[in-house]
Q: What sequence folds into this?
C-alpha cells in the first residue's frame, strides 16, 4: 500500500488551513460593492398575509431595497421542487402544495420568509427588517402528526386533503398476514422517532453576484452538491441557464444532509442580486438554522414481529406516519420510503415484510434527509423490536440475533434490497469480545450492590449506501441519476489534479482521494491536488451524501485513473522501445518488467504534452475522465454494544463503555474512518439522550437555540472502542462500502436498549432524559 | 461611532466602528481575520473564541468597546511563522477536526485549558472544560485526544525553555 496509499492513516492534507484559520467558508468571502440580505420571517405557524407594508423599511438608512413574495411570483421564479416522485398504494401521485421561495399569500411554518431587506450592512438590513409591517390573519395550526390527521384538522394545502401527501406501501401484505396467523409469538409496540435539527456548525450562507454585461450569475453557497444546486436553480427556478450560472461550494462547515437541498435563501439572493444590480450576501444565524434548515426523522410507528416456536422470525408488519413539515423538501419523499422501509429486514432473515408509510403535512419546518436518512429510523425500530423480543421470549439478545442472522449472500430481502455481502456473526463476535459480554452479569451485580442500575444494549445495523444505481433509482421515482464523475489531469511536469463531483465538508477527500492516486502510481500525496466544489472547474457531478464519496466518487476516480494509466503505459512503452504489456508502474516510474529500463512519470507526462515522440496516431495530453454508475447499493453493517449505568435517584445515565464494530469493506484511511464513526455515534447518542425538536400546540419551535436544544457536548459522551471487520464489497473496484452514516444509524437503539435493560421498563422514548428515565423507573 | 484601539496578534489596530459592533465582527469584517467563526447567537458554541489578555473569551458576545486597549490573539496569531502551535499540531496529528468550522474556537479554548491546568489534565477534566465548545463532526473523541496530547507537548516545551 505504501506509506501514503490505501489503508494508511495519513494525517489530512487539508488540515493546515483549518488549524491556522485559513479555511475559506462562504461567509469569509467578500465581493466589492456587496450588499447584505436579512429576511422577514413569519412568527406564525399558519396565517394568511393580509398586507405587507415595506415603505418605512425602505426609508431606513442604508436600505437598498425591500422585496416581497409577490414580487418573486410576479418575476416567475419557480416554486421549490421535490425531486423524487412517490406514488400511493392506490397508484395516485403524491399530493403536493406549492412552495414559493417567499410566501406571497399564506405562511405555513414559523420562520418561513415573506420579505427580504437588502442593505449596505448586516446591521442596517436587520434594523430595517424590524420596520417591515406584515399584517397576518392567524389560522389554526397542525403542529404534529396526530393533530394533522385528526378529523377536522386545519388543512395546509388544498392539493393534499387530510394533510396526507401519500399513503405508500411495500411488501406482501397477504404473506405477512398468513405468517402472523401461524406465529407462536408476536412482539409488538409503538414508538416515536424524535425530530432532530441537523445543526452543522457553519450556518447556511449564500453570496449571489450578477454580472449584467455577461448576464451571468455566480453563487457561493454552503452546498454538499453544487452541480445539483445549479441544475435545480436553472431547470426549475428559472434563475439562469446552466452555462450562465456558476455555483461554488468552498469550504463547507459540515452538512449531515442539511446542505443537500436548495433552499429559498439562495434563490432569493440570486434573484435579488439581479434586481438590485449588486452582489447580495446572506448568512444565516443559528435561530434561522433551527427554523429553516430541513429537520430530520420525526416518525410515529407501530411494529409487530412474528416468531415461530423456535424463535425464528416469520414476518414483520410496520405502519409509519412520517412528518414532512409544511412543504415537501427536495428529497424528503424518498426518506421514509426507499431509504427506510427497504432496510427493515435489518441483518435478519425475515421471510415476509409489509410496511405502510403515510406522509403527513404539518405546520412545521420541512423535514428531509439528515445523517442516515431513513436508515436510523429503520434500525431503531427493528433493533428495539428484537431486543424487546429477546426479553419477552426470555432468550439472550445476542443469541436471538445470531439465530436469525442472514448468513448466505447474496440475499434478497422481501423489501427490494439485495445484500451483496457481509458477515454479521463476525462483527457480533468481535463486539461481544470487545465489550466483555461474558463479564457483564458480574458487573451488573456489582453495580447493583453500589445502588446503580446497569444495562447493556445491542444494535446490529445494516444500511444501504452509495446511492445508487441510476436505473434502479429512476424506476423508483428519482428525478436524477446517482452516479459520480471524475477527471484525472496529469500536468506536463507530472503532478496530478483530480477533479471530482464529490464534495468534502469534513470528510477529508483531499487526503483519501489523493491516497488512491498515490497507491496506484506510487507517488507522494503532496503531488496530487483534489479539485471540487466549483461548477466552472469540475464536470457535472452528483455530490456527497448517503456515504457515497468512497464507493461511488472514488470508483469514478479509479476508472479515470485506469484510462490515464493505459495511455501513459503506451507512451512509456514507446519511449522505452518496449512492449506495452511489459510496462509496470512502481514508485512513480514506468518500468519494463524484468529489466532495469524505466521512465519516470514526469517524463511520460512531458512526452504526452510536448508530443514530439508519441506513438503514431496518439492524441497529445494526459487527461481522462470517467462516469461511474454503481451496480448496487453497498451494505455497511456492524454491531454496537452500549453499557451504561442509571442512577435510580436522578434518572441520569452514565456511559460505562461503547463498542462499535463496523464492516465498511476496505478502509482507505482508518484514522478518517474512525473519525466518521465517532461523529456518527455522537449524533445517534444525541438523539437517544439529548436532542429533541419540540413544537408547542400552536406550532412554535420551543427548542430553537443551543440554549434550548440539547446538543451533545464533550462531557455528555464517552470515548469509544471502535474496530472493524472486513468483507470486501464486490460491487465496486475498491471493495469499499462507505462509513459516513453508520454511527448515526446504529447508536440510538444500542443506548435505549441499554437503558431499558437497566431499568427493567421497555416503555421509554427518545430522548431518554433523566426526567423520562426517572419516571420510567418509577412506573416499572 | 467610537474609535477603538487594541493590539491584535501583536499588531496595533485602530478602527472607528458602531458602538454595537461585536468583537467577532471587527475581527472578521474590518480586519479580515476570518479564522474566528460565528456558530450561534447565544454564546453556546464557542466557534468565536479568541484570547483577550491571555484568557479565552467568546468574541460573539463581546462588544468591541469591552476589548478597547486589550491584547487580542486569534487563531491566526498562535503559530510562529510556519511552526505550528503544539495545540494546532496535536489537532492535526490526532484527527481532532473534520469540517474545521469549530476548530479555531476549540484550539483557542484548549490552549487556555492547558494554561490553566498545566500539564495535569485527564480526560474527564478536558471533557468538562470543553463544555462551552460544540463540535458536530468529531464526536469529541479525537478532540479530547488532541488536547491531552498537546498538554504533554506543551509541558515538554515548557520544561525545555
A:
Amino acid at each position: 500500500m505504501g506509506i501514503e496509499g490505501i489503508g494508511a492513516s495519513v494525517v489530512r492534507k487539508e488540515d493546515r488551513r483549518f488549524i491556522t484559520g485559513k479555511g475559506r467558508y462562504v461567509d469569509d468571502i467578500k465581493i466589492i460593492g456587496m450588499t447584505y440580505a436579512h429576511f422577514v420571517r413569519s412568527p406564525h405557524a399558519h396565517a394568511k398575509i393580509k398586507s405587507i407594508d415595506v415603505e418605512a423599511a425602505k426609508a431606513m438608512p442604508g436600505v437598498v431595497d425591500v422585496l416581497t413574495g409577490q414580487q418573486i411570483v410576479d418575476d416567475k421564479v419557480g416554486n421549490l421542487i421535490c425531486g423524487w416522485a412517490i406514488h400511493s398504494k392506490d397508484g395516485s401521485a403524491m399530493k403536493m402544495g406549492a412552495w414559493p421561495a417567499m410566501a406571497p399569500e399564506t405562511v405555513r411554518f414559523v420562520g418561513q420568509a415573506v420579505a427580504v431587506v437588502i442593505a449596505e450592512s448586516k446591521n442596517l438590513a436587520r434594523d430595517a427588517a424590524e420596520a417591515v409591517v406584515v399584517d397576518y390573519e392567524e389560522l389554526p395550526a397542525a403542529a404534529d402528526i396526530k393533530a394533522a390527521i385528526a378529523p377536522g384538522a386545519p388543512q395546509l394545502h388544498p392539493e393534499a386533503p387530510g394533510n396526507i401527501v401519500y399513503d405508500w406501501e411495500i411488501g406482501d401484505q397477504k404473506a405477512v398476514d398468513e405468517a402472523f396467523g401461524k406465529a407462536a409469538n408476536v412482539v409488538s409496540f409503538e414508538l416515536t422517532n424524535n425530530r432532530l435539527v441537523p445543526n452543522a456548525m457553519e450556518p447556511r450562507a449564500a453570496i449571489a453576484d450578477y454580472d449584467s454585461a455577461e448576464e451571468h450569475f455566480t453563487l457561493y453557497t454552503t452546498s454538499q452538491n453544487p452541480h445539483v444546486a445549479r441544475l435545480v436553480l436553472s431547470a426549475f427556478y428559472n434563475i439562469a441557464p446552466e452555462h450562465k450560472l456558476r455555483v461554488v461550494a468552498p469550504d463547507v462547515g459540515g452538512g449531515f444532509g442539511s446542505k443537500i437541498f436548495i433552499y429559498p435563501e439562495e434563490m432569493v439572493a440570486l434573484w435579488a442580486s439581479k434586481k438590485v444590480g449588486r452582489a447580495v450576501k446572506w448568512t444565516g444565524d443559528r435561530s434561522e438554522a433551527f427554523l429553516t434548515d430541513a429537520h430530520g426523522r420525526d416518525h410515529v410507528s407501530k411494529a409487530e414481529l412474528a416468531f415461530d416456536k423456535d424463535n425464528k422470525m416469520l414476518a414483520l408488519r410496520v405502519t409509519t406516519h412520517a412528518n414532512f413539515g409544511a412543504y415537501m423538501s427536495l428529497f424528503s419523499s424518498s426518506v421514509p420510503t426507499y431509504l427506510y422501509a427497504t432496510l427493515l429486514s435489518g441483518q435478519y432473515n425475515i421471510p415476509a415484510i409489509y410496511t405502510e408509510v403515510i406522509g403527513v403535512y404539518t405546520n412545521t419546518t420541512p423535514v428531509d434527509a439528515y445523517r442516515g436518512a431513513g436508515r436510523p429510523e429503520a434500525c431503531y425500530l427493528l433493533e428495539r423490536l428484537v431486543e424487546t423480543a429477546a426479553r419477552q421470549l426470555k432468550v439472550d439478545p445476542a443469541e436471538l440475533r445470531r439465530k436469525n442472522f442472514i448468513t448466505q449472500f447474496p440475499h434478497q430481502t422481501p423489501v427490494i434490497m439485495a445484500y451483496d455481502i457481509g458477515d454479521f456473526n463476525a462483527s457480533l463476535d468481535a463486539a461481544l469480545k470487545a465489550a466483555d459480554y461474558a463479564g457483564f452479569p458480574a458487573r451488573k451485580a456489582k453495580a447493583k450492590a453500589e445502588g446503580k442500575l446497569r444495562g447493556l444494549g445491542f444494535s446490529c445495523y445494516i444500511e444501504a449506501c452509495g446511492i445508487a444505481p441510476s436505473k434502479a433509482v429512476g424506476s423508483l421515482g428519482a428525478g436524477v441519476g446517482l452516479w459520480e464523475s471524475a477527471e484525472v489531469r496529469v500536468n506536463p511536469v507530472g503532478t496530478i489534479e483530480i477533479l471530482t463531483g464529490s464534495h468534502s465538508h469534513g470528510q477529508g477527500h483531499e487526503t483519501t482521494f489523493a491516497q488512491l492516486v498515490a497507491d496506484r502510481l506510487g507517488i507522494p500525496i503532496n503531488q496530487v491536488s483534489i479539485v471540487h466544489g466549483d461548477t466552472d472547474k469540475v464536470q457535472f457531478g452528483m455530490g456527497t451524501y448517503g456515504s457515497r464519496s468512497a464507493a461511488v466518487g472514488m470508483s469514478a476516480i479509479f476508472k479515470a485513473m485506469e484510462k490515464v494509466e493505459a495511455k501513459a503505459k503506451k507512451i512509456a512503452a514507446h519511449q522505452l522501445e518496449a512492449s506495452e504489456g511489459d510496462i509496470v508502474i512502481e514508485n512513480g516510474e514506468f518500468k519494463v518488467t524484468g529489466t532495469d529500463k524505466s521512465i519516470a512519470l514526469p517524463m511520460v507526462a512531458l512526452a504526452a504534452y510536448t508530443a514530439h515522440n508519441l506513438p503514431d496516431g496518439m492524441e497529445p495530453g494526459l487527461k481522462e475522465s470517467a462516469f461511474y454508475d454503481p451496480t448496487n447499493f453497498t451494505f455497511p453493517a456492524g454491531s454496537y454494544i452500549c453499557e451504561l449505568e442509571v442512577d435510580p435517584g436522578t434518572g441520569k445515565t452514565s456511559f460505562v463503555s461503547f463498542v462499535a464494530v463496523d464492516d465498511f469493506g476496505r478502509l482507505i484511511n482508518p484514522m478518517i474512518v474512525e473519525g466518521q464513526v465517532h461523529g456518527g455515534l455522537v449524533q445517534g447518542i444525541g438523539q437517544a439522550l439529548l436532542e429533541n425538536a419540540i413544537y408547542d400546540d400552536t406550532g412554535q419551535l420551543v427548542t430553537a437555540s443551543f440554549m434550548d436544544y440539547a446538543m451533545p457536548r464533550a462531557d455528555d459522551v464517552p470515548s469509544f472502542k471502535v474496530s472493524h471487520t472486513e468483507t470486501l464489497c464486490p460491487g465496486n473496484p475498491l471493495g469499499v462500502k462507505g462509513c459516513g452514516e453508520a454511527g448515526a444509524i446504529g447508536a440510538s437503539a444500542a443506548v435505549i436498549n441499554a437503558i431499558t435493560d437497566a431499568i427493567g421498563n421497555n416503555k421509554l422514548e427518545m430522548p431518554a432524559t433523566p426526567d423520562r428515565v426517572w419516571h420510567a423507573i418509577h412506573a416499572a | 461611532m467610537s474609535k477603538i484601539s487594541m493590539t491584535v496578534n501583536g499588531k496595533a489596530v485602530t478602527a472607528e466602528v458602531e458602538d454595537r459592533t461585536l468583537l467577532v465582527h471587527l475581527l472578521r469584517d474590518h480586519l479580515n481575520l476570518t479564522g474566528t467563526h460565528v456558530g450561534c447567537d447565544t454564546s453556546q458554541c464557542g466557534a468565536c473564541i479568541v484570547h483577550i489578555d491571555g484568557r479565552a473569551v467568546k468574541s460573539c458576545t463581546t462588544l468591541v468597546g469591552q476589548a478597547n486597549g486589550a491584547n487580542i490573539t486569534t487563531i491566526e496569531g498562535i503559530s510562529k511563522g510556519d511552526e505550528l502551535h503544539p495545540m494546532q499540531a496535536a489537532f492535526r496529528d490526532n484527527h481532532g477536526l473534520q469540517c474545521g468550522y469549530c476548530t479555531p474556537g476549540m484550539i483557542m479554548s484548549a490552549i487556555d485549558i492547558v494554561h490553566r491546568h498545566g500539564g495535569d489534565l485527564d480526560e474527564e477534566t478536558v471533557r468538562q472544560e470543553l463544555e462551552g465548545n460544540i463540535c458536530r463532526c468529531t464526536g469529541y473523541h479525537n478532540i479530547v485526544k488532541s488536547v491531552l496530547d498537546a498538554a504533554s507537548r506543551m509541558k515538554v516545551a515548557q520544561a525545555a525553555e
Chain A has three domains: 31-139+202-253+259-292, 299-468+632-779, 483-628. Residues 31-139+202-253+259-292 of chain A form a domain with the Aldehyde Oxidoreductase; domain 3 fold (CATH 3.90.1170.50).
